[in-house]
Design brief:
By secondary structure, the protein is mostly helical. It has helices at about 1-45, 50-65, 65-70, 80-85, 90-125, 135-165, 180-185.
C-alpha cells in the first residue's frame, strides 16, 4: 500500500509542478499585458483592445494553477495549531478529519465548476469584447480542482495509513524514520 501511495504521490507531484509552472508563466504574461495596457493607454493614448477580456481569462488560470502544488507542500492555511501539538494516533485522527472535510469542500466546488464548464461549452459563451471562449479558463479551474481533490484524497488515505501505524515513515508527509523504527512500526 505504501509503495502505491508513494508512486501516486510522485505522479501527482509532477503534474502539480507543471500546473504551478503554467500558473507562474501566466502571471508573468499577465504582468506584461497590464504593463503594456498602462503604457499604451497613457503614453500613446491607445489601450490594448480586449485587455479586460484577456486579464479575466488569465486570472482564472493564475489563481487556480498553483493551489494543488501549494497543498502538496502544505503551504495552504491548515489547522496546525491543533494538529502540530498532537502526536501519534490523535494527530493522524485529526488529520483524517481535516482532510475529509477539505476533500468534501473541494468536491462541492468541483461540481459547481463542472456545471459552469458544461454550460459554457454548450452555450458557446465568450467574453464581451474580443470573444475569447470562457470554457478555457473554466476548464483550467475545473482540472485544478480535480487535481487538488486527488491530492487531498491521497493525503487522507496516507493519514488513515498512519493512523493504523503512527510510527511509520511517509513520503507524502515528509516523515522519515530509521529502518529499525520502521520495522518496529510494522510489527506494532
Amino acid at each position: 500500500m505504501q509503495a502505491l501511495i508513494e508512486a501516486i504521490h510522485k505522479i501527482l507531484g509532477f503534474i502539480e509542478r507543471s500546473f504551478g509552472l503554467v500558473a507562474g508563466l501566466v502571471i508573468m504574461g499577465l504582468m506584461v499585458v497590464v504593463c503594456a495596457e498602462v503604457v499604451g493607454r497613457s503614453a500613446f493614448n491607445h489601450p490594448i483592445r480586449g485587455s479586460i477580456d484577456i486579464v479575466s481569462q488569465m486570472m482564472a488560470i493564475a489563481a487556480a494553477g498553483g493551489i494543488p502544488y501549494t497543498q502538496s507542500k502544505f503551504g495552504n492555511v491548515r489547522m496546525t495549531i491543533l494538529t502540530g501539538r498532537l502526536e501519534n494516533r490523535p494527530r493522524w485522527l485529526a488529520e483524517v478529519l481535516t482532510y475529509a472535510v477539505a476533500a468534501w469542500a473541494v468536491w462541492v466546488l468541483m461540481q459547481g465548476s463542472t456545471g459552469f464548464l458544461e454550460r459554457a461549452w454548450r452555450s458557446g459563451a465568450d467574453t464581451a469584447e474580443i470573444h475569447i471562449p470562457t470554457w478555457i479558463g473554466i476548464s483550467f479551474v475545473t482540472v485544478s480542482l480535480s487535481l487538488l481533490l486527488a491530492r487531498l484524497v491521497l493525503q487522507l488515505i496516507e493519514s488513515l495509513r498512519l493512523l493504523a501505524r503512527p510510527r511509520a515513515s511517509s513520503l507524502v508527509f515528509g516523515i522519515t524514520r530509521p529502518a529499525t523504527a520502521a520495522l518496529n512500526a510494522d510489527k506494532g
